[in-house]
Design brief:
A five-stranded mixed sheet has the order 1-2-4-6-8, with no helix packed on it. A four-stranded mixed sheet has the order 10-11-12-14, with no helix packed on it. It is mainly beta. The chain is built from one helix and 19 strands. The chain starts with a strand and ends with a strand.
């Protein structure tokens, strides 16, 4: 495992390193960009209190297996998660955030900012076939909803004005307000729209 000299930054976790659990050292402050990219032998990543930053594509194409649905825990001290940190992390199915975290929140395994105005990540391996975006959400970051093979139905609040869906090829129905951006997007992408 490659760290900086002071073991405050994780640079690279070897993609084929044996051992099923990574436990972060107490000194770790940053999970670097692409740090866990393409890892295939990990079943769990245990991040430490004291960690502050998870950088771009940190878990890109990582295969984290935990009861067939990878789980990720965000400690209370994390205050900077790059919007792409979990993009292409197709085996993560559930994200939990410490109740004491002042910057992020999870609801039913989905990652938001603390005020639930920004949808950060709908985990790709989430088991549910439908998802209702909370009405408080006004921003969906690019990559937040991607590789959702099991997602069939999506409910989008009226306040959303941009929607990025990446490789959600089985999506069949979008629910939303008549005249909303959700309706426009559904029509442009030949997806059934149902007004609610």
């Amino acid at each position: 495992i490659l760290y900086d000299k002071n073991i405050t930054r994780l640079i690279t976790y070897p993609s084929v390193k044996t051992g099923h659990t990574y436990t972060a050292p107490s000194t770790l402050k940053t999970v670097g960009g692409y740090a866990f990219a393409n890892t295939i032998l990990l079943s769990a990543v245990l991040l430490n209190e004291g960690l502050t930053t998870i950088e771009h594509y940190a878990f890109k194409y990582s295969l984290l297996e935990f009861n067939n649905r990878g789980q990720m825990y965000i400690p209370s001290t994390v205050n900077n998660i790059d919007t792409t940190a979990f993009t292409h992390a197709t085996s993560i199915g559930y994200i939990t955030v410490s109740e004491d975290n002042n910057h992020y929140k999870s609801i039913n395994g989905v990652l938001y900012d603390k005020n639930i105005t920004i949808l950060m990540r709908l985990p790709a391996a989430r088991a549910n076939s439908s998802f209702v975006i909370p009405n408080t959400v006004t921003t969906i970051v690019e990559g937040a909803i991607g590789e959702q093979n099991q997602l069939l139905e999506l409910t989008i609040p009226a306040g959303i004005t941009k929607l990025y869906l990446d490789r959600c090829q089985n999506l069949q129905t979008i629910y939303g307000k008549t005249g909303s951006y959700a309706e426009t997007w559904a029509n442009e992408h030949n997806i059934t729209f149902i007004a609610i």
